[in-house]
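Section 3.1: Structural characterization of target chains.
Under the original work plan, the team committed to producing a structural model for every single-chain target entering the pipeline before any wet-lab resources were allocated. The record below documents one such target. The sequence was received from the expression subgroup and is listed exactly as submitted; it comprises 244 residues.
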Amino acid sequence: MLPNLALQLTPNQLLYQQKRYRGKINIKKPKIYFKKRVLNDLLTPFFVNPNKGKTLEQFCIESQEVQAEKQLGPYDQIIAREVRNWFDNSKMIGCLHVNSMKQLDVFDVQVALFRENMHYKYYGPHIINHVIKNSHYNALAPLVSKYTSFVFSPEINTITLQKIIKKSKKMFIMGGVLEGQILNYDDFLKYGEMDIITAQLGLVQTLQNAGGLNLNRQLTHHQTTLVTRLEQIGTNETTSNDKK
């Protein structure tokens, strides 16, 4: 009995020891088993390089080859005549870069421009390039792309145009044409805001303040002196003849 009681009174003691796992697990690139690796290698797509074996001279020759110009169809020719009519009969032409946006937002911009007697138009790049080719609008060619739109107006009103375009966060003015002169963004806004009559008055006032009246007197001094002397000589001769 005593040995059994001694065994029952002694508590069960558990021995445990903490160990740290020092290996790092790469979650993005886990270890792949051999079968899965073979399957991935077999299913990996491959593409044939079309320029393999070509020399640098061949690349230069191919880059110099001019592609045949695409001829406009009957419908495109009608649209091209309409575009040329817009270019020739508009005093202000705004060139816009339009990012991807909903057509409903574009319609809102069209309505706002139409209320100010401006017309928002978009045409294909091949039609625009055909219209401006060999004309004084040819300088607009680098700006023409599938993201380019135009605003035509019979009046010069760049201030209102800038306000409307600024409300749309995905449209930007790149430049334009004012009375047949192609201008960049800064000059387009600068000369569009300028009033010719006010500028002329300012120029006259500046010349007057800079001594323009004094310069005029100096230039005409000898002429007026000569005229007065001739008048005096003429009057003296007539009086002497009358006395005789």
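The beta strands are 92-98, 119-121, 148-153, 171-178, 181-184.
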